[in-house]
Design brief:
The complex is a heterodimer of chains A (77) and B (255). Chain A has helices at residues 6-11, 16-71. With 77 residues, chain A is mainly α. Chain A contains two helices and no strands. By secondary structure, chain B is mainly alpha-helical. Chain B has a domain at 58-233. At the A-B interface, helix 2 of A face helix 2, helix 3, helix 4, helix 8 and helix 9 of B.
């Protein structure tokens, strides 16, 4: 251990402000990057799923419409 | 070799492979970074000239060399993608750009906070600092180009060309401290045979550097997986995976 006390550790031999500024900003930027990456990944999956569900619904509707059309008698058309 | 490499060119295989790698990488990152940073902050001896301000070194140097390393990786990926039309290379280049930008910003900010007590100024327009700032702008340009086009292949091509043009900046950053008279000190660790640093100072650096490198690996893997999904969103395996994931998430939320 290079420091005698916790306050000496925080003081960093008079350079505390600069050292902790560097470590603080670096930690904040890295955490922001990690959370952004994880959030973006979840968002990508969610968007693909939403689009897929919409497509499935459209396909169902279309196939139902096709069925009702085939059931109508041909003379009417 | 091509036969062995071929399965990894498959997006689905790469997606699942990186998924399996991430837990290992993140565990190793936490291990190395906690050892390295605690060692660097509390146990490494103070510099005889710079006192305790030199502890900034343990973030500044890994961040700066990784900012260049990531750029080199991105350039290799861009080259592969432009020459061989290898789509996963585009995805990996797009995954690396934001990580590189953050590490460049960290290198600049910590350098600034180190420069203030040592040189008496937050910023000076000297060769090393200016070329590193240009690296940040190159990263931002590459990110902007990746997001500027709806068509990801076109975006990858545009960003790839900018990346390759920007490679010229890497040797300029590396040798700026030798070519020009600058305030920035020369390299202390890269002479691998005989680093001009004492061993008690060097070991924590090795841990910090490996920790940050593993951190970059982890984040790039996470972003790479997102890029794979975006580029393959109409493939059946992606659709099935997305539906399955969102269903399990909904089930958790409804509980």
């Amino acid at each position: 251990m290079q420091f005698d006390s916790f306050s000496a550790f925080l003081d960093m031999g008079g350079y505390g402000f600069y050292v902790w500024l560097s470590f603080g900003i670096s930690t904040a930027l890295i955490l922001a990057l990690i959370f952004n990456s994880i959030y973006a990944h979840k968002q990508v999956i969610k968007n693909i799923a939403i689009r897929q569900q919409r497509e499935n619904k459209l396909r169902e509707l279309r196939s139902q419409r096709n069925k009702t059309q085939t059931n109508t008698p041909k003379e009417v058309i | 070799m091509w036969k062995w490499l071929h399965p990894y060119a498959n997006p689905e295989v790469s997606y699942h492979l990186t998924g399996r790698i991430i837990p290992w990488f993140s565990a190793l990152t936490i291990l190395f970074l906690s050892i390295g940073l605690i060692w660097a902050l509390a146990f490494a001896p103070a510099d005889y000239q710079q006192g305790d301000s030199f502890r900034i070194f343990y973030i500044h140097v890994p961040a700066a060399s990784l900012s260049m390393g990531i750029y080199l990786g991105m350039a290799i990926a861009a080259f592969t993608s432009l020459v061989w039309q290898f789509k996963l290379a585009d995805a990996s280049a797009a995954a690396m750009a934001p990580v590189g930008a953050i590490f460049t910003a960290i290198a600049l900010i910590t350098g600034s906070a180190w420069g203030k007590p040592m040189w008496g100024t937050w910023w000076i327009w000297d060769a090393r600092l200016t070329s590193e700032l240009i690296l940040l702008f190159l990263y931002l340009g590459v990110i902007a180009l990746h997001n500027a086009f709806e068509d990801k292949a076109l975006a990858g091509k545009a960003a790839g060309i900018l990346t390759l043009v920007g490679v010229i900046n890497l040797p300029i950053i590396k040798y700026s401290v030798e070519w020009w008279n600058t305030l920035h000190q020369g390299s202390t660790v890269s002479n691998l045979g005989k680093p001009s640093m004492s061993v008690e100072m060097l070991w924590p650096f090795v841990f910090c550097f490996l920790g940050f490198a593993l951190l970059v690996g982890t984040i790039v893997c996470i972003r790479f997986r997102s890029e794979i999904l975006i580029r393959n969103s109409i493939r059946p395996w992606v659709k099935a995976l997305a539906l399955e994931k969102s269903l399990s998430n909904n089930a958790l939320e409804n509980k």
